[in-house]
TrEMBL record:
HTH cro/C1-type domain ranges (all copies): 21-75
SMART domains, per the entry: HTH_XRE
Protein known as: Helix-turn-helix domain-containing protein
InterPro entries xrefs: Cro/C1-type_HTH (IPR001387), Lambda_DNA-bd_dom_sf (IPR010982)
Length: 77
């Protein structure tokens, strides 16, 4: 059962993870569209993750980390 409303710390962590994805993507020199193509997702999905509208699941985080050449821990610390 989801928590309603979501605790503040969850929203904070969601924003932090999104910012880390964005930073790693920019360091890799990729656009949202290019990253989306590499992991088989729509670019809107990448946008939603980066701006904390949605949170990627573990499988998606693994795909992103691999596509960007960063350890998974760097995205979720």
């Amino acid at each position: 059962m989801p928590l309603d409303p979501m605790p503040d710390w969850v929203l904070t962590r969601r924003r932090e993870i999104g910012a880390r994805i964005r930073t790693a993507r920019l360091r890799a020199g990729l656009t949202q569209i290019q990253l989306a193509e590499r992991i088989g997702r729509e670019h809107r999905t990448i946008h939603r993750w980066e701006y904390a509208r949605h949170i990627p699941n573990l499988q998606d985080l693994l795909l992103v980390a691999d596509a960007l050449g960063v350890p998974l821990a760097d995205l979720v610390r």
